[in-house]
Fold these 2 entries.
Entry 1:
Amino acid sequence: MNIHIISVVPELLESPFSHSIMKRASEKGLMHVTMHQLRKWAVNEYGMVDDYQFGGGAGMVMMCEPLVKAIEELNAAHAFDEIIYLTPDGEKFQQGLANALSLKKSLLFICGHYKGIDQRVRDHFITREISIGDYVLSGGELAAAVIVDAIGRLIPGVLNDETSALFDSFQDNLLAPPVYTRPEEFHGWKVPAVLLSGDHKKIAEWRNEQAIARTQERRPDLLKED
Ligand code: ADE
């Protein structure tokens, strides 16, 4: 999968994609992330990409021209499946959307800043608008990092044990059951005996019961979704 990200602070995303699973995904050639500095398409030699908003009001708005030039140039080269704008008023990001996006070949993310981007870019170029939650970040970069991480780990081959993503919380609308590792007893606290029994059917049943109980207790709303 090829992911391109347009931002005025691409440096913000250097670290998230240079370690751990995302690094492995890129080394294995399964996911390639390219950052683009929007100022490359600035309207003047001072790197201008934003301007005051019509109608007055505090805060700058990211201008059409740099964004449209950037999107057109990159889209001509990469034919994006989706052009995604990160914004608090977008569709709420959830596991189902991560699953759907992980099947795409090429994605472009636009990170907004200040008051956001000129509405005409949203109207004419953006195919999807996504929010990672009901709070306002100072820019779309961290939202892009969250989404790319969630998508990247679903690409077959990225995780060592390919089945493990299937048992994540939220797949099947259930939270994940508790997990334990060695030692079997620590400070007198014992691992549930069923996990040491070697009986795989019983273990699967126990995990399923635990997942349902945890979901009922912490996120009953998930059990009502279809
Ligand atoms: N940009 C600012 N806040 C955001 C949010 N909650 N989700 C996605 N992009 C954002």
Entry 2:
Amino acid sequence: MSDECVFCQIAAGEIPAQVLLEDEEAIVFHDLNPQAPTHLLVIPRRHVESTGTLETEDGELAGHLLLTAARAARQAGIHDSGYRVVANTGNEGGQTVPHLHLHVLGGRPMSWPPG
Ligand code: 5GP
Ligand code: ZN
């Protein structure tokens, strides 16, 4: 855990969040500033900075996060209509919280390309 990391603090229960589901490895909660009718964040409990710092041995965790995103989408009722999974990475990727997270966005049509 990184003491100054807001998502580590959410994982530790030190900052409240609207949690949809959780297991030993991951937590899914609603984004504070939703960009779609459904906007979830999937995070590993363990502090990993971004997709760019995942190591080969993190492959199982990375797969688990994707599977958890799909599970969360089903639970939130956006599986049938479709949704988008996004991992902003680094400065130009638009990452503002340096703890790996997958955005799961749904409930409206998504445009492409992203801004
Ligand atoms: P990023 O910009 O790094 O891809 O995404 C970070 C996301 O975390 C943003 O969508 C932002 O609204 C969300 N966020 C930042 N701080 C908090 C918080 O304390 N609680 C929750 N639920 N979401 C947060
Ligand atoms: Zn963290």
